[in-house]
Amino acid sequence: MGDSAAVTDVVEHQGYCHCKGVTFSFRAPARLTAYRCNCSICTMKQNVHTVVADREFTLLSGEDLLTEYRFNTKKARHLFCKVCGVQPFYIPRSNPDGVAVTVFCVDRATVETVHIRDFDGVHWEETFAGGSHEIAQRSK
Q1: Mean pLDDT over residues 44-61, rounded?
Q2: pTM reported for the whole predicted model
Q3: Are strands 23-29 and 57-61 parallel, antiparallel or unpaired?
Q4: Nearest to 119 by CA among 47, 55, 14
Q5: How far apart are CA 93 and CA 136, in angstroms?
Q6: What is the pLDDT of residues 107-127, one digit of tens each?
Q7: 117/62: higher pLDDT
Q8: pLDDT given at position 86
């Protein structure tokens, strides 16, 4: 996409895990906003993700290759490829009606920019009090 694309211009993005056994597509702006969370699991795996409404996400292949991990509140569904171990996306606690896509698993051909914002997942309850954090609106 050229520099004239607006932040709201929606494109069809493609993504995959490392072995490409899990593939997916999602509709979102070419200029993505992503979140770098400092919670225990996101810090360990260095996850930076963009959130989209589940209606904008399509799993194309590899559902049988996904394994799930839940911890603490057990609300977030962390999904990993059984073959390569990569987490290309997951269902976040902050957005149970959405999908958090790992930006480094998205084919760069449709991505114009990625604006990374920090999210204080260590203090999740305080950060997300009342669902007022901007991330809550990303899956609406």
Answers
A1: 95
A2: 0.83
A3: antiparallel
A4: 47
A5: 10
A6: 999 999 999 998 877 777 777
A7: 62
A8: 97
Q: b/e string for 37-71 if b means 16 or more Cβ within 10 A?
A: bebebbeeeebbbbbbbeebbebeebeebbeeeee
Rounded Cα distance between 35 and 2, Å, is 24
Exposed e or buried b per residue across 77-107, where buried means at least 16 C-beta atoms within 10 angstroms of its C-beta = bbbbbeeeebbbbbbbbbbeebbbbbbebbe
Rounded CA-CA distance 105/87 in Å is 9
Token output for 53: 């409404």
